[in-house]
Amino acid sequence: AHTNLEMTKDVILCSGKGDENTQISHEIVALGFSLHSFGLVQDAIMCAVITKLGTSDKDKGILLIKAAKQKNKDIFTIMFSYTACKNASTRNYCTEQGCNMVTACMNSLKKALRSIFDTVSDFGPYACALCKKGKLTEDALLDHCFLYHNQEETSRQAETCPVCNVSARPYPVHLFNTHGPVARGEHKAEWQMNVHKTYTFCLLVCRRKSDGAFLMVQEPVGWGWWFPGGRINMGESLEQGAIRETKEEAGIDVKITGVLKVMYTPTEEDARLRVVLFGEPVDEKQMPKSCPDFESYGAAYVTLEEAYKLPLRSREPLLYYQYPYNMKSKQQYHVDTKTKRYVADGKPIHPLSILGKE
User: Fold this and answer.
1) Phi, psi (degrees; rounded to nearest 5) at 49
2) According to the model, what pLDDT value does residue 59 have?
């Protein structure tokens, strides 16, 4: 029944005291929202809730988020926490508890709230195939999918697109590559940007020098944690593609310093080239991405021990973080401090010069 209720332009803010809280309040009001305190969660159909982790059972932000989601699962819930952004396990916990966004970046918060405001302000003919929320424009439908359903496994299933009535899987990826800006010719679909016939991908093992932590991305549509990286666009070098993809998916500016592995898989119709590069952040103090979109849900620096505990898209990152391990084994992995590590123990990292042009 909740999907038929009208969402209001109201935001509940429960994020503590101080200058930061005041700044958040000002930004919320400036964007056109009405600001309310925690007590009104029972009295209004809010469109968003912003809270912090809290330090005791009495002020846990997760409890507020759960209460809001029980009242109306369409409420957009934001955990504004430096702790959660810096710790991959905490960030993942917040995601599992129903947070739609985990951030400590004011610009990311403003970007998400602008999209939410447009969703409740502009009325269109479409309803989301995943939650049935209606009155969405074509652009609002795209923003809604990647903001509200970014980490839901159901988004990987086949759904009937409300715009073109085509059964698509994954449905959010179909929306991004077929409708909205792509349909209007404002930018190309992913497959249109790919190098013709040879499908080229770059992956980046990015390690922070100060503590040896690795940069990992929380993939969209609930795929799990993985390397930053993706397809190389036309006219890009592998190095340029890795820098762009890392910025898009993880929000970090990086310097590429070496090559770990080159893989080439030909078929009768095309070929696939995958290159694993090694690099480091330009500025170790730069915060990883925290605003969900098509590229990712966010990112964090992960220790080797944390990597074993996180839900990974595949076990491939561990091949480069720690060596050796059995790629095909389904056994539960445990950290063994006596096991030889690859990057962590200084295994071969080849120079970028081996990727020279013809």
Assistant:
1) -130, 130
2) 60
